[in-house]
Design a protein that fits this description.
Three copies of one chain form a homotrimer.
Chain A: H1 12-35, H2 42-68, H3 76-102, H4 110-135, H5 139-170, H6 174-208
Helix pairs in contact in A: 1-2, 1-3, 1-4, 2-3, 3-6, 4-5, 4-6, 5-6
Chain lengths: 209, 209, 209
């Protein structure tokens, strides 16, 4: 069973939920940014960048407390992994948005918007799973959320294959291929990272069972 | 010394050997697929995909048992690493074959066939090393197999450099360069992964010495 | 407090300093190689290759001794991480120089020379931090060196974005884009690796505090 914290002890769950909320904000912001037809500019990128910095602070606080706290709600290495993998989600939003800006790619790309929709679903399932760890009563709901993340990762694999095949068939400009290929692969990597988070959550549940 | 298992205990070695056999099957299947001059189609890809799924099941069984078993033949983290690295071999066969399909690349490419030959040799040395762990008498044979994997990885490095240099010199179509460059790099990564497996095996032997 | 070694015990610090010196040599050699206008040839590449081999030997000696030594100056896993990350610096110099050779790229590229300057600064700060671990008195100086490495990584991120944006704007030949894009990304990765080393050093200090 997950050990209960004394009131004044550091509450890791509060910070995990903060990380999850930043991820949800970033997924929503990303979807908005790429839906606009304009090229991703510095102002748009800074919205993601700001969220990434805030999430970084949350991650650092968790790591600091991990070094200072004797009693933790679950294995120290799992807290470490969960924090790091959650942070990878925000890093990846930062990477892909920055790349769109550097490559001066126009928004409104339908394939990428479809990807962004899947990513938003995956991140919201991640948030459900991570937030479920606190109460830790409804194991089934947590595992269902993780299963959904895994399912969406498979959807993303198929989508990436389909989109890349289409890109190579229709695009005639090799430079456009270089740019979009990388963006689509980044989008699929987002879903891989969400799957990594789900795996950490699953392994925490297994140990607590 | 490696602790002997009681008859009814879970036998990790059986599963490691299963993983090794799937890797050998995949190496052989991959070589066949790319020797045919036709483009890699869905049917060809599914042969590799099926092996990857079966290998996945074996890996999951090992991980499950690892969580349930008190006595293990060697360090838990080494069982974990060995299982995961062996699984990476199958994942990489899946990645490269899928990419050939998505990129609609024709078979019969001599450079890739040469790579596939080296990969088959490396995987078969891996299988020899991994299977040697069970009896664990002939340490020299295991270490020789690992040394061969390391040697083949160096051969692969040189081959990749040579093939890429040639590609950039002769290919005039940048899109073909983008595609084949990635395939050749994947092929070399296969040999890197085999080397990672060999390193895990070597470190298991060191600890048991 | 860092435990003092008896005179005849293996001195890990000597080897860490050796690794740091090889990194400094490689940074200097790399800067020289790419400043010359000629294409990077085999002779130039071998200078880096030789340093990488020597650094490899130092890393192997550390790992060997780690398995044999009971008392270590700090956590075994930190010695392992520090050694491995330091080794990654030399591996990356090898990778980028080899790529320049394989791609037959001319030297004298101003952007890359600027990167090489930043890399040299970062590596020299790494050396300062790592060498500081021995005496371990002036914690502030070590942490300042780590902070400088982190700062330079941020500089490198901005430089890569700027250089890639420029490359896509000015270069008309997609094949040149493919090649240089990879080189610039490698250069930025060098700074990421230095940051990873700095993080290991920082975490060693935290534990010893």
């Amino acid at each position: 069973m997950i050990r209960k914290f004394l009131p004044r002890e550091f509450n890791f769950f509060d910070l995990f939920e903060k990380q999850a909320d930043y991820a949800i904000d970033a997924a929503k912001t990303f979807k908005e940014i790429i839906s606009v037809s304009a090229v991703v500019d510095e102002a748009a990128y800074q919205k993601i960048r700001t969220l990434e910095h805030q999430a970084d602070d949350a991650a650092h606080t968790i790591m600091d407390q991990l070094n200072k706290t004797f009693i933790t709600p679950f294995d120290r290495e799992d807290i470490h992994s969960l924090t790091k993998e959650m942070d990878n989600i925000l890093d990846m939003f930062n990477t892909i948005t920055n790349r769109l800006k550097v490559y001066k790619l126009p928004g409104g790309n339908k394939q990428l918007m479809e990807f962004a929709g899947i990513i938003e679903l995956s991140v919201s399932s991640i948030a459900k799973a991570v937030k479920g760890l606190r109460a830790y009563k409804d194991t089934k709901a947590i595992l269902d959320a993780c299963a959904e993340v895994n399912r969406l990762e498979n959807v993303g694999d198929g989508m990436r294959d389909h989109v890349l095949a289409g890109l190579f068939e229709t695009a005639k400009d090799p430079i456009a291929i270089i740019k979009w290929k990388e963006i689509y692969e980044d989008a699929e990597t987002m879903l891989d990272i969400c799957e990594d988070v789900a795996h950490v959550v699953e392994s925490i549940l297994v140990k607590q069972a």
